[in-house]
Amino acid sequence: LTARKLKRVHGMRSQGTNDMRKHLSLYPETKIVRLYHHSSSLKEYLLVTNESGRIDGDSILRQLALETLDSLQKVLFPLDHKSMILLKSMVLIKNWDPDCVECNSIEYRREDEKEIRYHYLSDRLMALFGEAENRRPHGTW
């Protein structure tokens, strides 16, 4: 379920958003997937909460930040050459956060966060996967 495959095979387009609540929002009628691309702010938040060691309400936001970062760096834009070219073009042409191409997030993770489960974004990832697998016609006769 990479952004490259969604674009090439299914004709979907990635559109950046400044609103983290809209990350992975799918608009089937226009074939647009909105992506929160401000990875530098996600990493900064993870770094601050990693150092604080707090476990209260930060854990929900931390989990969401990890899921958002992972969905960008591991799912949609993995480390293969062609995905990186697409991501770099989004940075240059669409003004995405240049930090998106820096994929080392290990320093922002706690020991128990090496691999994460998607709790908050799983429905959106499944909807995106479903749309890609069940391509339905969007035109009219």
UniProtKB/TrEMBL annotation:
This is Uncharacterized protein.
